[in-house]
Amino acid sequence: MLVDAHLHLQDQRLDAIRPGLADVLKEKGIAHLVVNGTSMSDWAKVAACAHRFPEVIPSFGIHPWQIETHPKAWLEHLLDCLDTHGGAIGEIGLDRWRCRNNIDTQESVFLEQWNLANARKLPVTVHCLKAWGRLMALIEKNPHQGPGFLLHSYSGPKEMVEDWVALGARFSISGSFAHPRKEKKREVFNIIPRDRLLIETDAPDMALPESAQSCATPRDVDGKTINHPGNLDRVYAFAAQWLDISPLTLEKVVFANFIKMFRPVLHQSREKPGSNTCQPHQG
Question: What is the pTM of this model?
């Protein structure tokens, strides 16, 4: 069985593929998908995906790119979503590549979400670009108390892997690493312990090269390929080849790693849509 550790099924670019997704999941043997929210504005759609597809594990968080737009009541609302729908924390993190001028605010919002995850012993999905040292310093001071945290589509230095492992990190490889320009970046996965490895699509982003895709979708308004969640099998195929292990071995290893990390939020009882609006509070 295949598992997708990180994607954004709620994204409007995937609206057209959701009606037929159940058939794709069955055909591809996809057992679980972790659907990550990025702001209060999309948490309701994350919850709706979890109610619509039993394979979906919802995850609620404020992405560093969305820091400046989050309302004051975001933490109260995050608690509401977790209490009503269950799930993990994410996507949260730090980013000094795209957002260079608000790193102190990013750290504050990250820590509030991180500490909530620790209080509830929940898995966490983390985004990081150009802020690896600061992220590690925060986590060293506030050790993870849950079943693991995922550094999704890991692009950090090789030299930090050992320290990240000691802190409880997991690392996911996405289809974007299959592009020739990413060869140097993907070399890090040769030293990541196999028991810390996960696979993700990050759909609708991080697409494989078009020639490697099994599920094509239209391009977005900028002409970029929209990554279909059904391409997960091809990410596995690429990763198995790159890591020089059999596809079946990789599938078994990744599934075991996924269950170990996300077991606390698997098959949680969720209220029906409408019992809690999961919509942004005003103010």
Answer: 0.93
